[in-house]
Amino acid sequence: MKNRQYFRKILLENREQLMNITQTTANAASTVELDQSRMGRLSRMDALQAQSMSQESQRRDKLELVAIERALQRIDRDEFGECLECGEPIAEKRLELNPTSTLCIRCANDQESI
What we know:
The protein is mainly α and 114 residues long. The protein has helices at residues 4-25, 41-76, 92-97, 105-112. The protein is elongated.
């Protein structure tokens, strides 16, 4: 497997990108003003829809940040790259695609079939 420091670097870069995105989308997720004198009904509906989409995006970003932090902790505990279900190594290609993966492909497929 590639050096764990390689994956640490990728995870830290991903975390930095997500944190920057979260900061820039905070305004889009803020409360929509419902002042009819400032905007029409359709504009308010568009603003509410955009707010809802931004809030969902922020929720997913927060979940991804948690997954990144947990992967970094597994690196620190020397457990990175091990399946949390069966303890077998997670394929390097799988980790390259998603360094926050916690399951080997077999265990991930088993969970999907449940």
